[in-house]
Specification:
Layout lengths: L3 H13 L5 E7 L14 H14 L3 E5 L12 H9 L2 H4 L6 E4 L3 H10 L3 E4 L9 H8 L2 E5 L11 H19 L6 E4 L8 H9 L11 E3 L8 H4 L7 H14 L3 E4 L2 H15 L3
Parallel strand pairs: 1-2, 1-8, 2-3, 3-4, 4-5, 5-6, 6-7, 7-8
């Protein structure tokens, strides 16, 4: 069962969805993540970075202790927990809600016991059969992300995403995870061609019938270089452009490395969009 202070953070975060575009800030406490691996590995540096992201306007911080970049070497459960133990006890004392980016139920349960309120599973509850129960027992919210074992350019990517979400949502329902604590993520950059990444964003509206908020995480990803023709990968400008395109297409939140720039861009965008 979730602690009262953590429950307040969880409910405030969920209540904010739909009132404006939300920003999830990324914290990688790993030496090898694709963009910022090693930069925030030291606990004092990680904590300072979280405080800065909060000051810059993030709504939630997503902490990962295992890289999910293509070709990354898997991290065992004990090491992943040890990396998290260095930072979580102090971070949960901050006002910002925290999310744990993991595919392992034991790691998720450990983080939730500290006061983390969201589990962000890049395999959408389908990799570890214990994950859905861990989320339900802790009364946490969950981000269900679409993924595949390998890329298949012949697929209608939205049809594949829908099949994946149907399986994940059935698992969540069986475990007792309420729909109002569920967020969907189309998994930009995960086993998708550049065309499929673009389609997944452009066709977000086709997923509205789930009645669930959608998160998009395209920040600093390699495929951004294919959109301009110059081959320059993972730029800030490209990240901002894709995040705004995702919001227009129906995303409720974006998961990003550069919080200050995204928060500022979203404020301008929303001010223009809300002008009578």
């Amino acid at each position: 069962m979730m602690r009262p202070d953590a429950r307040v953070k969880r409910d405030a975060f969920l209540a904010a969805i739909g009132t404006r575009s939300l920003v999830m800030g990324i914290l990688n406490v790993t030496p090898n993540s694709f963009f910022d691996g090693g930069r925030f590995f030291a606990s004092e540096v990680a904590l300072a970075h979280v405080r800065q992201m909060v000051a810059d306007g993030c709504d939630i911080v997503d902490i990962g202790a295992e890289s999910t970049r293509p070709g990354a070497k898997p991290v065992d459960e004990a090491l992943e927990m040890a990396r998290l133990d260095q930072v979580l006890a102090e971070m949960v004392t901050l006002e910002v809600p925290l999310s744990i980016d993991t595919t392992k139920a034991a790691v998720a349960a450990r983080a939730l016991s500290f006061g983390v309120v969201v589990v962000n599973d890049v395999w959408g509850l389908q990799k570890d059969p214990r994950m859905a129960d861990a989320v339900a027992e802790a009364e946490a919210a969950v981000v269900i992300m679409h993924n595949r074992a390998e890329k298949d350019e012949s697929l209608d990517i939205i049809a594949d995403i829908r099949r994946f979400f149907e399986r994940s949502l059935a698992i969540a329902a069986h475990a007792g995870i309420p729909k109002h604590r569920t967020i969907l993520d189309v998994g930009i950059g995960f086993a998708k061609s550049s065309r499929q990444n673009r389609e997944a964003i452009l066709r977000l509206g086709e997923l509205k019938d789930y009645g669930l908020p959608i998160m998009v995480g395209a920040s600093r990803k390699k495929f951004l270089g294919s959109l301009t023709g110059d081959g320059i990968e993972g730029t800030l400008a490209g990240s901002l452009a894709v995040s705004l395109a995702a919001i227009v297409a129906g995303a409720a939140s974006v998961r990003v490395h550069d919080v200050a720039e995204h928060a500022a861009a979203l404020r301008v965008f929303q001010t223009i969009r809300n002008t009578d």
